[in-house]
């Protein structure tokens, strides 16, 4: 059986590690690597999209990183209890025209007993920024 450590229930140390592991995986911009943190039948809401299952996660991330160049993400633990973690995050990227953006948001995560994320609900807003105003490198 697949396991993704640390496992719930989370404490401060393990919740912080789970968040850092997620940040590291997303910053790899490797859809396959990222998808391994999720259950086969994971459920996502990402902005206005509903994504179901690892295969859809991989396809979503491939499309995302085709459009979001020089992507850099920072996640911060907001709260945790039992098998759930809430994070706030920000990331920066530029599009094909060279316009830079900073995205802000919150995610609510729910994990199964094997430490795989079964639910991810994300609310995200983008704002255009000047390249000189970037803060994530």
TrEMBL record:
Q: Name one GO molecular function term.
A: kinase activity
Extract the Pfam families matched here.
DUF1348
Q: What are the entry keywords?
A: Kinase, Transferase
Read off the Gene3D superfamilies from this record: 3.10.450.50
Q: Which InterPro entries match?
A: DUF1348, NTF2-like_dom_sf
What name goes with this protein? Hisitidine kinase
Question: What organism is the protein native to?
Answer: Pedobacter cryoconitis
């Amino acid at each position: 059986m697949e396991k993704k450590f640390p496992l719930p229930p989370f404490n401060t140390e393990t919740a912080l590690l789970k968040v850092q592991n997620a940040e590291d995986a997303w910053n790899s911009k490797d859809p396959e690597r990222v998808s391994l943190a999720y259950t086969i039948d994971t459920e996502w809401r990402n902005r206005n999209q509903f994504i179901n299952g690892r295969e859809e996660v991989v396809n979503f991330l491939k499309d995302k990183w085709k459009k979001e160049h020089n992507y850099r993400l920072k996640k911060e633990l907001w709260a945790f209890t039992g098998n759930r973690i809430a994070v706030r995050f920000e990331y920066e990227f530029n599009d094909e025209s060279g316009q830079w953006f900073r995205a802000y948001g919150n995610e609510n995560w729910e994990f199964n007993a094997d430490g795989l994320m079964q639910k991810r609900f994300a609310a995200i807003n983008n704002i255009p920024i000047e390249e000189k105003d970037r803060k994530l490198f």
